[in-house]
Design goal:
Distance between the termini: 70 Å
Strand order of the largest sheet: 3-4-5-6-7-12
Radius of gyration: 21 Å
Number of helices: 8
Largest sheet: 6 strands, antiparallel
Number of strands: 15
Order of helices and strands: EHEEEEHHHEEEEEEEEHHHHEE
């Protein structure tokens, strides 16, 4: 088998049978210029390409390349997603979908109706929600990944290989360290440290906005924060602290993609940069699925001391949420190996039966679902990543192999990577007085 190298650009998981459309169309932030263009090399490998460096040759067990001409990639693409059925809503609904920055929807858009997502703008009680969440991760390598001597100071984040994540009652986030640095500059780069530092400082910055209350009794739910917050501002302050940590340790390389979600009242605010994924599921269907941000195939936008990308390049998204919505954040280790239908299949295994016969059963379901579902999705993605399909088995290819084939690259079997999955159920906390005109 020939020796090949692979840079990384991930696209959105697309269903096998149909060309889909995204629920939201969010443009790359116009006020900040995109990162420096990168001329894509013809050889491609399954490990990600670190930003700010040229890809090096390495051996990939299950990939082969076809000749291609060097191209200058376009800015991050907008990839189509799964078509979603329109939900019936009242004809007098006037509430419009909104994002950061504001985006208008074309009148001919066949699958999106903002009124089918948002509740009517009527006078009603305003709810506050919290996240009943849990997470599960499986590293690509069972051996411990070195993050440096200061790892004990980063206890607000959990490390999974070169992935890291954090959980709070009002927020959660995941970062995926770019593994290409371990070969490009092993002595001066540490992607695992950067991803863990980034998530640790995100959790820390959020804790400053909402100091933890005294320990509640077992019957009390966690108190959601009422302080206004912009996730991109949180990401920026965390990034600044990460750069300071790297400068003190003399590190010049290492990078990570980042995804941060913060819940405020009935609104989920998201800062998304790179190829981690966020998915919002309601009543057994996907109502929102993020689109990856990348320079070229297998080469995502990433933050790091040597990367031209900044937190200001992150895509800002705002989503309305409802009670019992299921929120999933994951590193690309899951979305490279599982289709959207696979994710819904796992969800339906836990939600198909009647689980809300009594408030007690409903509360127990919310507490146990995140743990069970995150483990189930992780385990399924891990099994797929270890498969070695024949080239003729196109119908059984994983999302990463499909995207590689569309780029003229032969890749068969699963995509081995760190896998981190965070799952939360949107749970109401308390009612506020109805809004007045």
């Amino acid at each position: 088998m020939s020796s090949t190298t692979m840079s990384k650009r991930l696209c959105t998981v697309i269903p096998r049978q149909s060309r889909a459309l995204s629920l939201y169309s969010v443009s790359h932030i116009d006020s900040v210029p995109p990162p420096q263009p990168y001329a894509r090399p013809s050889p491609v490998a399954s490990s990600r390409h670190p930003g700010g460096t040229s890809p090096n040759s390495s051996t990939t067990q299950n990939s082969q390349t076809q000749p291609s001409q060097p191209l200058t990639p376009s800015p991050p693409l907008q990839i189509a997603l799964s078509p979603l059925p329109r939900s019936p809503q009242s004809s007098n609904s006037t509430t419009q979908a909104y994002l950061f920055p504001p985006t208008s929807f074309p009148s001919h858009f066949p699958y999106l109706s903002p009124s089918s997502i948002l509740s009517p703008a009527s006078k009603r009680s305003r709810l506050t929600y919290h996240l009943d969440s849990d997470a599960y991760g499986i590293p690509k390598r069972r051996a411990h990944t070195h993050v440096g001597t200061c790892a004990s100071d980063l206890d607000l984040a959990v490390q999974v290989g070169e992935d890291s994540y954090f959980l709070r009652p009002d927020a959660m986030g995941v970062a995926d360290g770019v593994g290409g640095w371990s070969r490009a500059a092993p002595a001066t780069a540490n992607s695992a440290l950067f991803s863990r530092s980034l998530m640790h400082f995100c959790s820390y910055e959020l804790s400053l906005l909402s100091p933890p209350p005294p320990p509640p009794s077992p019957a009390e739910r966690p108190q959601p924060s009422t302080v206004d917050v912009n996730p991109i501002d949180i990401l920026q302050r965390s990034y600044d602290k990460c750069i300071s940590v790297f400068q003190r340790q003399g590190l010049t390389g290492g990078s990570a993609t980042a995804l941060l979600a913060v819940l405020r009242d009935e609104e989920l605010r998201i800062a998304h940069l790179g190829d981690c994924a966020v998915c919002l599921v309601r009543d057994g269907g996907i109502v929102y699925r993020s689109e990856e941000m990348q320079h070229s195939f297998n080469y995502p936008l990433q933050l790091g001391p040597s990367s031209p990308t900044l937190p200001a390049h992150a895509r800002a998204i705002s989503l309305p949420v409802q009670q019992n919505d299921i929120l999933i954040l994951s590193s690309d280790g899951m979305t490279d190996n599982l289709w959207d239908e696979d994710v819904l299949d796992e969800i339906n295994k836990f939600t198909a039966s009647e689980r809300f016969a009594t408030p007690w059963i409903e509360d127990k379901w919310k507490k146990t679902l995140p743990s069970m579902l995150s483990q189930a999705l992780c385990s399924r993605a891990k099994r797929v990543s270890e498969t070695h399909a024949l080239p003729s088995e196109v119908s059984g290819e994983v999302p990463f192999a499909r995207r590689a084939r569309e780029e003229g690259i032969k890749f068969v079997g699963g995509k081995c990577d760190d896998i981190s999955v965070l799952v939360a159920v949107i749970s109401p906390h308390a009612e506020r007085p109805p809004a007045t005109s």
